[in-house]
Amino acid sequence: MERRLADAPEWPLQTQLAMIRDAGFDGAGVRFVDPVFASEATNFLRAHGLIWQAQCYPKCVDDLKPVLDLVARLGADHVNLQPDVRSQRLADCIPLLEGWRRLADQSGVAVHVETHRDRMTTDLFFTLQLLDCFPDLRLTADLSHYLVGREFAWPVDDTNHALIHRILDNSWGIHGRVASREQVQVSLGFPQHQGWVALFMQWWEYGIRSWRGRAGPDATLTFLCELGPAPYAITGPDGRELSDRWQEALVMKDMIRALWDRIAAESRQDSADPARMRTVVPAKAGTHTPRQV
What we know:
Elements: H1 13-22, E1 27-31, H2 35-47, E2 51-56, H3 64-74, E3 79-81, H4 90-107, E4 111-114, H5 124-133, E5 139-141, H6 144-150, H7 158-168, E6 171-176, H8 194-214, E7 220-225, H9 245-268, E8 276-282
Parallel strand pairs: 1-2, 1-8, 2-3, 3-4, 4-5, 5-6, 6-7, 7-8
């Protein structure tokens, strides 16, 4: 929802939230490290029957405690945790994940660990080793970082598909962004990007099917349409973005809902299917690093 235009102001928070509501999203991602902001955003969302996921960026175990306290007061579908840690050793990460999981269990709040650049989960292979240690670790899959980080050859081979599938098999939420081998976010509508769009739709379809096979009755899957501002968004020589991210978020929402409906229709042919999906969008960003607030 950030514009970052030199000649135009940012949309006020209430304007952003009204746009999200009026566009037919089910909710928003809200940064839960600023209680005042989180309260204002969730008050609006609650009043309009929308949901939210609480975003946070802890550096140590105790950093999660005030976030969970705020969730206890304001509510949230789940906490999306970006571990703001860059250790090269599994031994340094294990106590942190154990601590965060313990706090989550004590609070009764679902906590998902996001795959994200410049975080504990920045590297695909390292994250897979974390899954060896924690086979039931709940992830939020942002696959764009792994495609760029590993720069998979095109077409993506079965070995690399299998690595991504393993991430998706542990994912309980998805953050939606289409990348190429060299760019973490490409425009959805450009002809030269359609192969990458098809690749991510294939991965997201696998992730949705995998989740549906694991999720309990009346479970909800959240898909965050997460199209970030520059430098995520590609810009021209004038510094302006080459496409309209808000319009692309609407396109992505419709693409994912159509995908979900197709999969659900297939499932209904066999049995009753109470699972749901919710599409959400980041409500606002502060600095570039924690952009999904």
